Amino acid sequence: MTALLDKSPLGVMVRIARIDWTAMSDDEGRRLREFGLIEGCEVTPHHRGSIFSRDPLALTVGRMKVIIRARQAAAITVEPAA
Amino acid sequence: MTAAIPSIALVGNPNAGKSSLFNALTGARQKIANYPGVTVERKAGHASFADGRPLSLIDLPGTYSLTPASLDEAVTRDVILGKQEGETRPDALIVVLDAANLDNHLCFALELLALGLPTVVALNMVDLAERDGLTLDAERLSRELGVPVVSTVAVRKRGLAELLAAVDGAIRSHQPREAAAAPANDAALHQRARSIARAAIVSETPVRRWTQRVDNIVLHPVLGMVILLALMFVMFQAVYAWAGPPADALESLVGTMQAWVVDNIPQNFLRDLVVEGLLAGVGAVVVFLPQILILFLFILLLEASGYMTRAAFLMDGLMGKVGLSGRGFIPLLSSFACAVPGIMATRAIPDEKDRLTTILIAPLMTCSARLPVYALIIAAFIPNRGVGGTGIGLQGLVLFGLYLAGIVGALVVAFALRRTVAKGAGAGFMMEMPRYQMPQLRDIALGLWQRAWIFLRRAGTIIAMTTVVLWLLLTFPQAPEGESQVEYSVAGRIASGLEVVVKPIGFNHDIALALIPAMAAREVAVSAMATANAIDADGDEDAMAETLGERLQGKWSLATALAFLAWFVFAPQCISTIAITKRETNGWKWPMFMVGYLFLLAYAAAGVTYWTAVAFGLG
Predict the structure, then answer these.
(1) How far apart are CA B196 and CA B372, in angstroms?
(2) Which of B275, B343, B432, B597 has its CA 20 to 30 A from that of B611?
(3) B184 pLDDT band (50/70/90 cuts)?
(4) Among candidates B67, B101, B187 on the partner chain, residue whose Cβ is nearest the Cβ of A64
(5) Is residue B7 within 8 Å of residue B56, measured between CB atoms?
(6) Chain A residues touching B313 at Cβ < 8 A
């Protein structure tokens, strides 16, 4: 059962199953990897946007909390964490 | 081992606590300059080994890898590889790791170790890692990495002597070695980093509960926004409320100095120059130092505590709608202090069009140089009373309104620019959120001192010079008996020419006179008026006793005062901002564009304000 990270419920840990690198620029892709967002890692989405919009998304990966845009999250397929 | 002073670079991920470590190692012995050819700030300083031999330290911009995504990250790579123009390759590296974020920070560390330079790892912020329930084995980490690892707590000065001793040892015992092979790809690098981190972690409890609990409130879609607005509001009220007593003290100090000169030096040309030109002009600007420092205090505190990135997160939705990103929030907030560091901070924005737009709207943020102008006019024309029996002052509220006008103007302009001259794909927004931290007194004090120094140096150079030139232009030629000296002088005649253009928007001769020298810097408008006023009052003791505000009260209508305020929300009157924009955008095209559109907006805004006020009977 897979879903996209931008629709994934907040506060629930998921595992990254697949990332569509073609949906983003090389720089964006590299920065994602530098944040540690790679296939197989576990992430928890925590906060989504403000009163203005549902963008961006804050999630924890390991001990780090990072912000990405919903557009990038939409390129990330996740599955329930074990 | 070279005879020269060894140069050591501090390098690491953003949020690894590099700057705190740099401050702790160098104290106040720092020098901030720019790398030649680029506007990235070069922070260098001095320290010494235990036996007294000096060393030079350089603090490089934080980055995630040696593949740069922005201008400042490129500087880090070029310095480390010895490719930065005018900069020798460092003799050794101190790789700064956040102890609580080893998995991630080790990736870059491994990349740096592979370069083969003498290297020492500073395992920084071990106290915060312990607070988060993480115990680490520095020795084990050292064995895994093959370089010395020293646990440090920069803010408590723990581990600093050990760190420098290890650097000394690493330089002495360094054998030129083949650069070790870095893992072939990102996945392999991450795997290696993670396995080293696992080995070094002795025990671990679940992550950052405390930070998460705070974030649940601070990043709440509605509540978070309310908190952000409240913080901004308190900040601008404080600028007004707290600065009163120290500003009064500075003002009376200037008065005392003027009186002393008048009493002790016989009346001559030089005395007038000092009293009416230098002291009246520079003094009028220096009294705003307390307000500027309070504003910077808030910005530095927000940054050091980790809140600034949360604010960027909250603002991203709004900024995204006009084609910017939350990244731009930090340069724009810095621009409230001064657009020059604000525009320089835009280099961290990866998208070129996003960056250009942020540069072009940065001057719309109400910088501290406008404060002297706003403060003078508000104090003179807006009654000092509460609004509807609340504790909120009307003066503070007007100031808040002026700030708001700049922000709304900036959003509208950004929206227009992103659809016309700076068209491009939607900007991205990827950023790490640091943990919350107690801001350190020393870091804040150092930051404030640097800002105060920059402001005073400006007051002593640009402002002093323009004031003196203006005084000369106001003093010659000497008016015959019965004629106003200010009107008769060279400056007065130039102002009369300009007055024709600005009269429709309610500006009088005083303002026309102040606008020209204020091209150098906005606050000169105040010192120019102070100087003209001092010359005007020459010999008249009653007039001398009045403050500038009181004089203006008698001469200007409320509509004129309001139009003057509206003008300064937009007017691009700052040589430094124009110069930095030219440098940052590599040419005259964008600074010229910026000056043009801002003057048009200023004229329109002042005009609309004046005509509206007159229609309401305030003329």
Answers:
(1) 55
(2) B597
(3) low
(4) B101
(5) yes
(6) 47, 50, 56, 58, 67
* Assigned domain for B49 exists: yes
Share of chain B above pLDDT 90, in %: 27
pLDDT in tens, B492-505: 888 888 999 999 99
In a domain, B605, yes or no: no
Q: Is the model more confident about B38 or about B415?
A: B415
Distance CA B261, CA B275 (A): 7
Looking at the domain assignment, is residue B32 inside a domain?
yes
Rounded to whole angstroms, the Cα distance separating B146 from B552 reads 71
Domains of chain A: 3-80 (2.30.30.90)
Residue B99 inside a domain? The answer is: yes
Nearest C-alpha neighbor of B290 from the set B242, B341, B339, B235 = B242
Residue with tokens 């700052």: B574
Contact between residue A52 and residue B321 where contact means Cβ atoms under 8 Å apart: yes
Q: Which amino acid is at B220?
A: H
Cβ of A68 and B430 within 8 Å? yes
Q: pLDDT confidence of B1, banded at 50, 70, 90?
A: very low
Indicate yes or no: CB of B320 within 8 angstroms of CB of A53: yes
Write out the residue range of the structural domain in which residue B62 sits: 7-207
Q: Which residues of B217-244 are buried (b: 16+ CB within 10 A; e: fewer)?
A: ebbbbeebbebbeeebeebbbbbbeebe
Which stretches does DSSP call E strand in B133-263?
134-136, 149-152, 201-204
In this structure, are residues A1 and A68 in contact, taking their beta carbons and an 8 Å threshold? no
The ipTM assigned to this model is: 0.94
Question: In chain A, whose CA is at the least distance from the CA of B212?
Answer: A46
